[in-house]
Structures are given as C-alpha cells and as structure tokens.
Amino acid sequence: MEKSKGMLTLVGTPIGNAGDLSQRGLQALLDADVIACEDTRRSLPFLLGRGVKKPLVSYHKHNEKSGAEHLLSLLEQGKNVALVTDAGMPAISDPGAEVVRLARSAGIKVTCAPGPTALTTAAALAGLTGAFCFLGFLPQKAKERSLLLSKFAPLPAALIFYVSPHDLKKDLDFLYLALGKRKITLVREMTKLFEEVIEGELGETDGIEPRGEYVLIVRAGEEQESAEDPRELLKSLLEGGTDRKSAIKQVAARCKLPRDTVYKMALEHEGEE
Predict the structure, then answer these.
(1) Which of 15, 39, 235, 242 has the largest count of CB atoms under 10 Å?
(2) What is the pTM of this model?
(3) pLDDT confidence of 62, banded at 50, 70, 90?
(4) What fold does the segment set 7-116 form as a domain?
C-alpha cells in the first residue's frame, strides 16, 4: 500500500511583536513533524517559548534548491512540514517559492497559516490606496536596477521596496535620479515599541538615518509637465551606469517625450564623448 504524502504549511511569524503569531499558526507548528527554518538559531528560542519542540532543518537562500529537494523527500515520506522564516511570510522576499513549486508539482498539498508581512503592514500604515507593485530589494548591479525601474516607473501605481540600512542612502539617491521628485513613505520597526512612519519626497531625504530595515513606498508619479532638462537627466543616467536602452525609456517616461527623440539625444551625447 502506497504511503500517504505529507502536507507543507507556510506559517507566518511575527515581524516584531511576538503576540502576532496566530492560533492557527501555532497549531500548525505543534502539528508538524518537521519545521524548516530560515535560521534555526533564531527560530529555536521562539518555538521553545511556545512549547513547540520539533526537529528543525535549515532552509535559506543559500541552500534553497537543495533544501527544497530535501523537504520534498520528507513530504513524500509522509512527514508534515511547517515552513517559517525569521519574520513574516515565507516566499515574500524570503525563501519558500522553490519548495512550494516542487511540492505542487509532486501532488503534495500546500496550505498556509497566514501572518503579518512588512509589505502589507507598511501599506496600511501609509494609508496607501489604489494599485501598487512590490519589487522587494533593489538589485545591487546598476544595470539590473535601471532595467527594473524602466519597466515599472511608468505605471500608475505606487512602488514598494524593502531597504536594508546600509543601502538606504544609495537606494534613495538612485530612485530620485530614476523617478524624480515623488512622494514617499518610509516605515520601520513595525509592530514594535518604536514604530516609525516618515513621509517626505525623493530628493529631500538627507536627514533620514539608516536605523534598521525599512519598507519604502514611492507614490505613483503625478501627470504634469516635466520641468527637468531631458539632456541633463539622460547624461546623469548614462554616466551613473544605466545602459542606453533603459536610460532612454526612463527619460521618455519622466519628461513625457517620444522615445525616438530621446534616442537622438543619446546619440548626440555619445558623439560628444
């Protein structure tokens, strides 16, 4: 007789306030045969404090593929696996997507005991309405960053990013160069004692100190005539490492110009070098 397969449960854990673990989430942890953790050292005290004493396995971004295959083998042996990250929901800018994909492909049930996420908590605190796009952490490479923004900047939607403290100034400067003077909201320490919501504009953020991780919400651009000099903007983007195609797309969107017009500007700029 074929042994029945286990079930994978994605369990949302608190992003700051330990009281935010749901009853369903706790029960899923208590019912699991194995708990996969982003960092077992961080999860162990949290679990023990709630009476959860189960075998732990590591599952993080550095072993996501091999770790997912290991978890799949446990599931196929009939083990029920709960997946947690250090904080928030698995697979939301954290490991989880690969094991979900493998489990579903193998016919294994995947369910969720949802919990708080920094993304939706920040959106609520910011009073965000309408459409938004979540882009996670900006890529480190200039070309990849520029390509990403060239795709999403023209959309009539807010853009939401996660920002690590050591990247805060760099990311804000880059976004100002790429998007212009847009309204922003920065949120940190969510659900904690020193929760902070900062509102401002790109280009006017020099006084913001890099204290912990932030969620950055950049509001959609307003439809208005641009006062920016498209040639200077194009020059800044190109000299800052943005490739020509992405720079043309960004300048055309920000300055409300046809792309062929900006293309000619790019050729002129290259001819001057």
Answers:
(1) 242
(2) 0.79
(3) very high
(4) Cobalt-precorrin-4 Transmethylase; domain 1 (3.40.1010)
